[in-house]
Specification:
7-stranded mixed beta sheet, alpha/beta, about 55% helix, 4-stranded parallel beta sheet, Leucine-rich Repeat Variant, single chain, about 900 residues, Rossmann fold, 43 helices
């Protein structure tokens, strides 16, 4: 620790701790700063004395500081060592099915699989004019033991990614234990006296209010006598005293929680942090650039574990598994569950698929509880309070309830006991047992567990998902296809339970029907299910797709059972394109060769327009480019992103957004790094939608000097991450079929042009989502008949926005043409009219005074302390109305 770091660390001490340090280093009073001196002056005086000929030296001060901090955590570290000494028990649900036998505690556990992680570091190759215009990502992989990997990259923050049960959380527990044993402390039993961070496990599944609250909760759990308020925690964080092990990004309960954690990581970039997540789509990556992926167990590791865990039945079990070993032993937890099922099966028979493994394990799990129930009766112990036949139904109901989070895309891993009792009261309304007794029994017999006094959870998320799958299977006959697509298939949180559920369905045709629904939601989802259920496809795909001349293209050939599901998706694309073509009008008045020639000529003319010196011509060409699907205009549109004209930049970015090419989004990123205009940045930010660019956005967010731009980027990141939680936007937002875009008309006075642009910016996301398209008078070009153009646009609009101000009331076009005609169309039900108060004006008695006016409090936008808040409220209201109009159009 150099002098600057030492100064910062000492400055962050509380006055009480600083005084303790002064006493411990025995500084003479004559060398201290005065009692009224500021902390910085006192620290400077201490360091000057320490560095002088009569002082102890800076190293001694640093040593005393370390001892001061670690002495406070001695009891905490002891508790960690005692609690997690048998770390392998965290792989198992030991209370439910019996303790794991260990011959000698000091011997290595059979659960020490030697897990491996793999890291992928992307290195950008320099642009080579001889190559394609797109930069290629060159991947460099590194494989290393999991603890070594997360230690290596913790200082720069690292994200550990893996399947459920792959050992992520257990790896954090092992690291927690090892770091606790190495951390400094006065007792030689605790550590070796080396300088190290204090390890803290932050379990995001129990999130309540903040990261600091979770840190403090874990510290107090292991040492209730610690006295750390937010100021003390912040000081220790700034001193770099903690190693944070942050478990379960995918288990954060809300966007607000994700935003808080994101801000926390940004505020403490120098604090070592290790994150874990199950799925990058569910929790995002928080901008953590270094990612380590848990690798599946090797066949040798699986066999070694089986022979150690069930030595007497190992060879029989391995013979039954044969080539299914890799499927069933993907993760340590699954392999352990499989061994338990085999060991306790009366006929030593293995289930046929993973879902059956879960069913067998949970049945065994429940039976184990029943045996405890029966033993309690025989021994005369305290009797169970409820009927055990209710337990499974209760578990399914609670699992289904926990699949419902704060928003439709979120789920929960813990719920309040009161909420659980309320749900079970509805389910068991006619039962004689109080629901609190049912919950008490589920806890007593280890089918659920208490995390806190009032919070309940399943013993593992995989178990929770299995019961959710059983619930959905039970519900299946009563659900319509639309309900299945909207409420279940479309959400990522339901994908794993759905795969389990499909494995439990005995009729193959029902599985295939379900997969067709999945294909309607998302092709890649359908492909994933095709990969999971390849044997069914092998035998049934021929009869699955309706008879067409493209039938052969959709079949998965029986001779090639390892055909990639990518090929299946390609075949489905062929079929779907053919089906779409069948409903198109096949007649065409143009000769195909002549039509191609016309398109090329039109394209060449459009390129010339895009390069014109006249800004109006360039703007017109950029708007034409929206429909020019026959020619690649990407490079020309990218050039327009640097145009001096804001409208041209905006239109070019919106066209490039729809093309979604890698080159256009890379261009957005490069411009965003240097652009300072907030409106332009907002336009560009909203045009970047691909998850693969999240890390780039994070970098720009971290280094951008503008807080306003950083906040815009952060909002965009959250939108992208939320978009990763469902497969289909149209289904997620309940929109009408594509093509039912709502046409929105802006009526405003020229004096209010700047305010109209601000409102349009706030509606940009609706345009990008193809929910609305808008028109305003600045799109009238020279030579156009102004009145005729306004009439044409006004008479076809679905929603008309009347931007009200003194100038709008005084403007003849606004008042006599637009407002009057808008009210006529509103009264006839042809359009929705929304008056919006821009600036103070007397509007009582105006034609629109009976309509709902925005903002809702009728306070003009320019009088708000923060006009953006007013625009946000207005944009949210317009979104709601647009959705209503779009649904209505979809039903016409």
């Amino acid at each position: 620790m150099d002098r600057i770091q030492l100064f910062d660390a000492l400055s962050n001490l509380s006055s009480h701790d600083f005084e303790r340090l002064l006493v411990s280093v025995n500084i003479p009073r004559m060398n201290r700063a005065g009692a009224s001196a500021k902390i910085g002056e006192q620290v400077s005086a201490l360091l000057e004395w320490a560095d002088s000929a009569i002082g102890t030296g800076l190293e001694a001060i640093a040593r005393h500081l370390a001892e001061l901090n670690c002495f406070e955590f001695d009891a905490y570290l002891r508790s960690l060592v005692a609690t997690y000494e048998k770390w392998w028990e965290h792989y198992t649900i030991t209370d439910a099915v019996g303790k794991v036998e260990q011959a000698q505690p000091e011997q290595p556990s059979i659960f020490d699989f030697g897990l491996i992680v793999q890291t992928v570091t992307k290195e950008r190759e320099p642009t080579d004019p001889e190559n394609t215009p797109f930069q290629q990502d060159k991947e460099k992989t590194e494989r290393l033991p999991v603890l070594e990997g997360i230690r290596k990259y913790a200082d720069d923050h690292v994200l550990l990614v893996g399947r459920p049960g792959s050992g992520k959380s257990t790896a954090l527990i092992r690291l927690l234990l090892e770091e606790a044993a190495l951390s400094p402390g006065p007792s030689p039993k605790v550590g070796r006296g080396e300088a190290a961070q204090i390890p803290v496990l932050v379990e995001l599944r129990y999130w309540q209010t903040s990261v600091l609250e979770r840190i403090r909760a874990f510290l107090y759990q292991h040492d209730p006598h610690l006295n750390l308020d937010d100021a003390a925690l912040n000081a220790l964080l700034r001193q770099g005293r903690f190693l944070l092990l942050i478990d379960g990004l995918n288990e954060l309960p809300s966007d607000e929680a994700r935003t808080q954690l994101t801000t926390f990581r940004r505020d403490y970039p120098k604090v070592p942090m290790i994150f874990t997540t199950r799925d990058l789509g569910l929790g995002g990556d928080m901008g953590v650039e270094k990612k380590l992926e848990m690798q599946p167990l090797t066949e040798a590791q699986m066999k070694k574990f089986i022979r150690a865990y069930v030595p007497d039945q190992a060879e029989a079990m391995l013979r039954q598994l044969s080539d299914r070993l890799r499927e069933f032993g993907q993760t340590p937890l699954l392999l352990w569950m499989l061994c338990e099922v085999f060991q306790r099966s009366p006929n030593r028979q293995l289930p046929t698929n993973l879902a059956e493994v879960f069913r067998a394990f949970t049945t065994m799990y429940e039976d184990s509880s029943v045996r405890k129930y029966e033993v309690a009766l025989l021994k005369g112990d305290v009797r169970p309070l409820s009927d055990r036949r209710l337990w499974k139904e209760a578990l399914k109901a609670l699992a289904a309830l926990m699949m419902q989070g704060e928003t439709p895309v979120d789920f929960r891993v813990a719920i309040h006991r009161t909420e659980a009792e309320r749900e079970l009261s509805k389910l068991f309304a006619n039962e004689k047992f109080p629901v609190r007794d049912i919950l008490d029994d589920l806890l007593k017999y280890h089918l659920l567990q208490n995390r806190t006094t009032d919070q309940l959870e399943f013993r593992h998320q995989l178990i929770q998902e299995y019961y959710a799958a059983e619930h959905l299977l039970q519900l299946l006959p009563s659900l319509s296809d639309e309900q299945l697509k909207c409420d279940y298939i479309n959400y990522l949180k339901w994908t794993e339970p759905i795969i389990l559920m499909l494995s439990l369905i005995s009729k193959e045709e029902k599985v295939l029907d379900f997969m067709l629904l999945a294909l309607e939601v998302d092709r890649m989802l359908g492909g994933k299910l095709a990969e999971e259920f390849r044997p069914i496809l092998r035998f049934q795909a021929t009869g699955w797709i309706p008879e067409t001349r493209f039938r052969k293209s959709i079949e998965v050939q029986p001779t090639d059972i390892h055909a990639s599901f990518d090929e299946f998706c390609i075949a489905m694309d062929s079929f779907m394109r053919y089906a779409e073509d069948e409903v198109q009008d096949s007649g065409n008045i143009f000769n195909p060769k002549r039509q191609s020639l016309m398109q090329i000529e039109a394209g060449q003319t459009l390129v010339e327009k895009l390069e014109s010196k006249d800004s109006l011509v360039r703007l017109s060409a950029a708007m034409e480019a929206r429909k020019a699907h026959h020619i690649d205009l990407t490079s020309h549109l990218i050039d327009l992103l640097e145009d001096k004209n804001w409208d041209i930049r905006y239109v070019a970015s919106s066209v490039l957004k729809k093309t979604s090419s890698r080159s256009s989004e890379l261009a957005f990123l490069s411009i965003l790094e240097v652009e300072s205009d907030i409106d332009v940045c907002r336009c560009i930010i909203n045009s970047i939608s691909k998850p693969r660019f999240l890390s780039n956005l994070w970098k720009i967010c971290m280094v951008n000097g503008s807080l306003e731009i950083a906040e815009e980027i952060l909002d965009a990141i959250i939108v992208i991450q939320n978009g990763c939680k469902f497969y289909n936007y149209e289904i997620a937002y309940g929109l009408a079929p594509q093509g039912k875009t709502i046409f929105l008309y802006f009526s405003y006075a020229p004096a209010d042009n700047a305010l109209q642009i601000q409102l349009a910016n706030h509606l940009t996301l609706l345009e990008h989502q193809s929910i609305i398209t808008s028109w305003s008078s600045h799109k009238i070009f020279p030579g156009d008949d102004r009145t005729q153009t306004i009439h044409q646009q006004l008479n076809t609009a679905d929603i008309i926005l009347l931007l009200i101000s003194p100038d709008a009331i005084a403007d003849d076009t606004c008042y006599h043409l637009e407002i009057q005609r808008a009210i006529e169309r509103h009264q006839s039900g042809e359009a929705r009219v929304i008056p919006i108060l821009l600036r103070p004006v007397d509007w009582q008695g105006a034609p629109f005074n009976q309509l709902d006016v925005l903002p809702k409090n009728h306070q003009p936008i320019t009088t708000w302390p923060n006009p953006d808040q007013a625009f946000q409220e207005i944009a949210e209201s317009i979104r709601t109305i647009a959705m209503e109009v779009r649904k209505k159009k979809g039903g016409e």
